[in-house]
Amino acid sequence: MEIYLPIADLPVNVFLLFAMGIAVGFISGMFGIGGGFLMTPLLIFVGISPAVAVASVASHIAASSFSGVIAYWRRRALDFALASMLLIGGILGTMTGVWLFSILRTVGQLDLTIGLSYLTLLSAVGSMMIVEGLRAIARARSGKPADIRRPGSHTWIHGLPIKVRFKQSKIYVSVIPLWVIGFGIGFIGAIMGIGGGFLLVPALIYLMRVPTGVVIGTSMILTLVTMAGATVMHAGTNHLVDVVLALILMVGGVIGAQFGARAGQKIRGEQLRLLLGILVLLVGLRFAFDLVLQPDELFSLRPIEGRL
Amino acid sequence: MRFWRLTGFAAALAALAAAAPAHAERLVVSLSAHRVLINSSFTGAEPVLFGVIERDAASAARRGGYDVVVTVTGPRQEVVTRQKQRVLGVWVNARSRTFSDAPAYLAVLSNRSLAAIARADTLQRLQIGAARTPMASDAADDPATDAFRAAFLRLNREHGLYREEANAITFLTPELFRAAIELPANAPIGNYEVDVKLFADGALLARQTSAIEIVKVGFEQFIASAAREHGLAYGLATATLALLTGWAGAVVFRRD
Q1: Is A273 exposed, middle or buried (0-12, 13-18, 19+ CB in 10 A)?
Q2: Fold exhibited by the domain B2-216
Q3: Do B234 and A63 touch (CB under 8 A)?
Q4: Would the CA dihedral through A17, A23, A27, A30 be positive or negative?
Q5: Hey, which residues 106-135 in chain B have their CB within 8 Å of chain A?
Q6: A181-205, pLDDT tens digit by residue?
């Protein structure tokens, strides 16, 4: 069944979009991530312009992360104080990201920037995850316990000023790195159409020593607010959010996530991380091919808006 | 669709009956639809144009028969054409050219090849054909050899927005013809001029114009105009929708 997307301005198959929503939702539920880094590229590969894809996926991620926040809130596995510190940076980062997005779009380098950002970020993070996953599996085989949190090992991050005690997370850290991390996640989220959970969770665990119990729920609060904010800002400045597209993806995503979460509980953590790493790296490499191989078509057209 | 074709045909015949006397050939044209509506199931449309060539006693005999060229021109728009170049191993949009009043849609329909209908200088003077349609650009170029202009026309042809069809007009009788104007799903909204030209022996005899309007209707219209005119409210509504969907998901699939 073909449906005409009013903003993307092209007809697409509803069932294809719905299936993509479910598939990405399944993966996101399985790994506890937003899934934007898969959804945005998929939309680009089916022919939706990168700009519309990035702007519309933001609302899809907002929906799935809100589902997650509610689930974690029921278990009281959230640290609102920590989340609010991340949000100060996150909102600023999103605003800066949307602003840069508009500029890049005007000068015609948005698609390239999206491609390059995906390539660098996903290859780097994917490789790190694979290495980490393999090490963890090796550790598990040899019988040694995993050491994620070493209380004694303080880095320069812990020497920064403006320290605050976060009771829920049981940490005493400076808010400066929290603002910086929040800003970074909000910024790349707005440009790339990703929630950034797969970056934020390791950053909070390894850099800030946030306990694993509250980290996912807390990171989802940041994702929720930055992505809802990005939706509003992209709609307000670039007029690129396709609500029909977003709604189909959201519904598919929310359903898929439930089944993914169940499947995720049956696979061991290390193997899960290895799988996710491989997936991330593959998406990154797909962008590398597009950038490096000579395109079939060297020319592209873009109507300038407001002159119709 | 068949219904529209029949009514268009009937309208053309009615127009023929009511036509005023003239001294040479006269063209009477009628479209099956003047408005094309884009709704959620829009996958393109094909309004049909009917035309009658009116002769009177003063009309000379045309041994070579008549030729008809229909040019459909969509709304004018400013378009940037960009060319990718390899920079440090990566393909990057490098050079660009802006065409400031290019038609968003252009169909040149005829009953046989344009070259067979009139000489090149006649076609050039009447601006018939995509390559002969004037389009101002931000750089001095030779329309015949410019790579950007060639790429612009080629890409629009590939997208189905520029079409030149030498067999799209059918003569039902020597003086009655029909042309199907194929509007693809990606045809932009706006006013489309329909310009019908009658030729015989390489000379322009008569000319007649009409128009088609493509409009978004219902839900699509509402969404598109809301996104453009009330961006912030539209964004807030979309974000609220996202929260509602997320909340519904959490409630429906509650596991504990």
Answers
A1: buried
A2: Immunoglobulin-like (2.60.40)
A3: no
A4: positive
A5: none
A6: 999 999 988 888 888 887 888 888 8
Nearest Cα residue in chain B from A13: B41
Please name the residue of chain B whose CA is at the shortest distance from the CA of residue A237: B231
C-alpha distance from A165 to closest chain B C-alpha (Å): 31
- Chain B: give the shortest CA distance to residue A106, in Å: 10
pLDDT tens for each residue of A230-253: 899 888 888 888 888 999 999 998
Give the closest-approach CA distance of B174 to chain A in angstroms: 39
* Chain A partners within 8 Å of B94 (Cβ): none
Residue A32 lies in a domain: yes
In a domain, A307, yes or no: no
Lateral strand order in the sheet of B48-54: B26-31, B48-54, B176-180, B169-173
Tell me which chain A residues have a C-beta less than 8 angstroms from the C-beta of B91: 291-295, 298
Determine the 3-state secondary structure of B145 from DSSP: coil
DSSP H or E segment with residue B193: strand B190-200
The structural domain count of chain A equals 1
Domain assignment of residue A284, given as a range: 13-141+159-290
Nearest alpha-carbon partner for B131 in B160, B159, B111, B151: B151
A304 located within any domain: no
Contact B210, B11 (CB under 8 A): no
Q: Dihedrals φ, ψ of B157, to 5°?
A: -65, -45
Parse chain B into domains and list their residue ranges.
Answer: 2-216, 217-256
Tokens of B104: 């968003």
Answer yes or no: is A7 within a domain. no
| Nearest residue in B to A257, CA atom | B249
pLDDT tens for residues B79-111? 888 888 888 877 888 888 888 888 989 999 999
